[in-house]
Task: structure prediction
Amino acid sequence: MDKVNLEEKFGKFQDHWHPRIVGELNGQQVKLAKFKGDFIWHKHEEEDEMFFVVKGTFTMQFRDKTVEVKENEFLIVPKGVEHRPSAKEEVQVMLFEPATTLHTGNQKSELSRDQLEFI
Result:
């Protein structure tokens, strides 16, 4: 039952698109990631994802629209919906998703990680 300082945790890594786990509850994981540039198009067949912007702004691209998500806002992407996050400048994001969620979803790429680091 330790508190988590987000600024401290974000300071532990510099790379983009590689989430780190900072907490777990009820089969869900709380992850932190830094976004910059374009991610890959992907979807999650069985899991919803929540993206909460701690610092900065990013856009979530869908096949039929784009949604801008700003600091202190969040977006839930329902399971089965193809999406691609994109950020012109670095953004700090907290993710809430089931522990089974692979961050590249149904796509394998050089960004895919089978095991995420717990920080």
Summary: Strands lie at 20-25, 28-38, 49-55, 57-62, 66-70, 74-77, 83-98. The mean pLDDT is 91. Residues 32-119 form a domain with the Jelly Rolls fold (CATH 2.60.120.10).
